[in-house]
Specification:
Two copies of one chain form a homodimer. Chain A is of the alpha/beta class and 520 residues long. Chain A is built from 14 helices and 20 strands.
Amino acid sequence: MHRYLPMTLIAALTLSACQPPSVPEVSAPQRPAFTLTTDEAYDFSVVEPYADDHQAVYDYIDAHEFDHVAAIQRWLRQPSVSAQNDGVLEMAELLRGDLESIGFQEAELVPTDGHPGVWGYYDAGVEKTLVVYLMYDVQPVNPEDWQSPPFDAEIVDHKLGKVIMARGATNQKGPERAFLNALESIIAVDGKLPVNIMVAAEGEEELGSPHYHQVIDAYYDRLKTADGVLFPFNSQVPDGTINMILGVKGILYFEMTATGGDWGGPSKAEIHGSYKAIVDSPVWRLVKALSVLTSPDGNTILVPGYYDGIRPPTEEESQLINAGLEQMDDAHLQEILSVSRWVDDKTGADAVIELLYQPTLNIDGIWGGYTEEGVKTILPHTASAKVDSRLPPGLDPDEALAKIRAFLDASGFTDIEIRKLGGYPASQTSVDDPAVQAALSVVFKYANDVAVKPRVAGSAPFYQFTERLGLPLVPTGMGFGTGAHAPNEVMLIKPAEDVPVAGLAQIEKAYVDFIYALSE
Amino acid sequence: MHRYLPMTLIAALTLSACQPPSVPEVSAPQRPAFTLTTDEAYDFSVVEPYADDHQAVYDYIDAHEFDHVAAIQRWLRQPSVSAQNDGVLEMAELLRGDLESIGFQEAELVPTDGHPGVWGYYDAGVEKTLVVYLMYDVQPVNPEDWQSPPFDAEIVDHKLGKVIMARGATNQKGPERAFLNALESIIAVDGKLPVNIMVAAEGEEELGSPHYHQVIDAYYDRLKTADGVLFPFNSQVPDGTINMILGVKGILYFEMTATGGDWGGPSKAEIHGSYKAIVDSPVWRLVKALSVLTSPDGNTILVPGYYDGIRPPTEEESQLINAGLEQMDDAHLQEILSVSRWVDDKTGADAVIELLYQPTLNIDGIWGGYTEEGVKTILPHTASAKVDSRLPPGLDPDEALAKIRAFLDASGFTDIEIRKLGGYPASQTSVDDPAVQAALSVVFKYANDVAVKPRVAGSAPFYQFTERLGLPLVPTGMGFGTGAHAPNEVMLIKPAEDVPVAGLAQIEKAYVDFIYALSE
């Protein structure tokens, strides 16, 4: 059994011991240069593969494969685009009703200042309690970019086999409903679950989870008694490797807007473009304000102190990165993303270090003035950009925003309006935690190749559990999906013969094992 | 009779005799500093007010006021948004049919590589021939910004009196159809016109007139025999002053697009925003490419040589500016535009100089990535901006574009794609031309205050006549309108009692006088 740890997609790195993050210089702006501190790799041979079989439950799953696909399709055909408030409440009610049907004694919506959360409690009458984090919202879509309509959830042919294509197929309704299928199957065969389950779901993950703390608040004392948190997750890549992610970056999301005012520019409406000769332009204003934030290549953040607080990786993180370096495949990932090179032509460990330990300043969208076909000659009175910053541990979203505001002010851009749309800090769980070790034992039962990543470059509000509640969080599950936040999102349901990835039935069986492994 | 020349909106200036335009410096970029060369003002007392009356025609106009308003409404209710190809062909046919009904012996569509032109010829069997330039297209609209729907052409109450509110009301269908009403009235009363008329209309003025040269080409030899060109125009401001414009700036209009490619960035579709840590951003790329084009305040063009060829004003232009300086009212214009200050806090003659002699680089629109409500965390693969540059005489659109391209290349932005959407050079007519003097004699018959502007900051494809055909061009006409290229565009039809501006009947009577003045 191979136990090297491929790091195809995501990894982490160690801060060079005595090298503090440098303050960016105006003449030659630089990001801090992180390097690994140890050559040692984490030893996964100590993990014993999970040995039990639950054949009666497995058989039940095989017998109900079509019902279980249908249950996922039912979720995917219900739009729940949080950014556009499309179908969100209907999806919350669908989730709540499903928990009730499965046998949760408590299943209720949780009011927040935004979209509601959903709470469920299944009392198995035992000591061990697992919290399950679910997000029931999805990203917006451009239907014209899709091969099959994003809310039809059709089964379509894919080079890897049969897939369900829909917004949310893999991010995150597909694996989440697969997990509930596993719970249903255990109850159907064994009469009850071997652990208590608390479901704490939100409908605003794609908005940056601005109100999830209110869901946690409402059940804080009960959640604190749990033993660990599961985030159901399609963690395989097409070669069968299972990824396990122990940390996420935080995020800050805001809009920057320039509007005419005392500084100049039209303040109420667009004016004829010929006035540019004597009237300042809010669009130029936005372009210039954005431009001061980064180096000429757009890749180094020039906001003073932005890199100061970044926490160096622990010894454990360094070992996990080393354990996975062997399987770095930049070319493959670049092909998937249609990207010809990484920033500064970094590769291998250097690219992993950049990906996991650098904060970002990314323009998600920019708009102003006339953006349709053809010609319109106007001087717009306002222009805006959506900006997000991914935050490694040690960079707090509110501190980050304060530093950006202060730098804009110091650069003369006091008129630029900033509207915060969301933000939360990073999260980290230790590989040595019993819940992580239980998850590892299950995946090693089924797969040779397991990649344990100390962190991914993406974000999720896991700090609510790891930082606020002090609980370990394990995003785990077999299976494959792709296209999150993009057109043609899919989850693999029935792999082609030569594809070593779990199909839906296998995904559910592994969740069954995880529930039992945790109960022991 | 007062004959000072107020310059409320627009004016011109003289290049300081021995001060060549300076090449912008990187450290302290500067625009060339133009100053007036003479304190003398043009002497308008030599113009004799037009003395004849055509009472029978005036009476006919008064008797048909409602029909004439209805004719304008008919034109305005036919959308003709060239940028969106909305109703353009229908409007061309409407214009053609109207020419036929009025009595033009020739009235036909003129195929071009874009929207068709319209040609009309009225043979009066006389020596004198007037060309009438018409544009039958209009700017796009955002209907939600309008008080009355933009293609309803309703008569609404305005502080100045009864107005027609519609896209195209003043720019340019309103005054154009008023001119045709005048022709109809002369023919109805006198049996025929006293001059031959050639109509050379286009449907792409708002696109930068990319194919108008093909309309001119088709009738070049005949057009060349004419004596002058009229552009019907609501030239009054609310205090009754009549503006006469003898020149326009040229324009260059293009799109700049950044897309992922060999330089970096995703090339096919947006990717997850967290990859910003190792993937270059096309949106940042566009922001940086735009930013190098102008000084930090967005107001000085840093493209080498951009200011080099600007032609100094003639002695005549200087005199015309001086004649109008007395009536400069910056505060009033700033209030109309909702602008708190001009660039660099210039006022008076300094502002007029900037407005008329500086080229501009204006961002009409910018877009990329997610621009809807809420949060979407993507790294877009492409971003674009629409840019226009207003060109004073001496700055050719193709040369300007070549300089911008060369500067982007030299700055490392060879990947930035430029798509030219239109462009043409500036135009100038002399105040001493007989056609201009005829127009002046008519306006001095009706108004005390006449402002003759050597140039405006806006653009029109008048170079086709002045530069290609060697004909004088006079944009003239009484009446008031506002809101061109903006919401709530109106033309004043029936002024309130204390408003010293011509209503529709008066506008048409002045056109009648102009036709007869020209025939003498």
